[in-house]
Amino acid sequence: MPKEIDFHFKSPNDSPGYLLGQVTMLWQRKLKKVLDPLDLTQTQFVLLAALGWLSKKNNAVTQVDIANQSNADRMMVSKVLRTLEDKAFITRQEHETDTRAKTIRLTIDGGVVLQKALIEVENADLDFFASLDTEISLFNKNMTQLIDNNMQ
Questions:
Q1: What pTM, to 2 d.p., does this model score?
Q2: Which of 1, 14, 48, 124 would staple 9 via disulfide (CB 3.0–4.6 Å)?
Q3: Signal peptide location in the record (predicted)?
């Protein structure tokens, strides 16, 4: 057996990565509870929300736009969009000017399920992060900084 394993941090609670992982798992578990009844996974919700957000300003939202907005892998986005199309939550049509791209749109059912999911997820977020109280703005600022500094 090798000698004792060396850890940089003295305890798991000193490790920001460990803590972020724990918070993420708990938060995802909470979201799963509210999204399951709507027949959505968290990834499906994120992509629907990205589409809904982008559609507010653009009638020709593409798969690449959705991937960029959600910071998600393009191949994974393609697969999940096919699933959302099978559920009749979105349509994919030929892009008017780019023959390589498809325009992604919410269907009426997709808009209804997205609105329900937004209400459920936003309420779950408010509940989950309530203990941060007045520190939520700083928490959000710190997360934004981490995202900005680690984008590739």
A1: 0.88
A2: 14
A3: none
- Rounded to whole angstroms, what are the CA distances from 115 to 23, 78, 89, 119, 146? 25, 22, 12, 6, 29
90-94/102-106 β-pairing: antiparallel
Q: List CB contacts of 46: < 8 A, sequence separation 6 or more.
A: 70, 72
Q: Where are the alpha helices (DSSP H) in the chain?
A: 16-35, 42-55, 63-70, 74-86, 108-128, 136-150
Pull the structure tokens for residue 10: 């003295």
Q: How many CB atoms lie within 10 A of CB 108?
A: 9
Q: What is the DSSP letter of 105?
A: E
| Cα dihedral sign, 123-59-102-62 | negative
The structure tokens 């996974």 sit at 41
What is the spatial distance between Cα 80 and Cα 73, in angstroms, rounded to a whole number?
A: 11
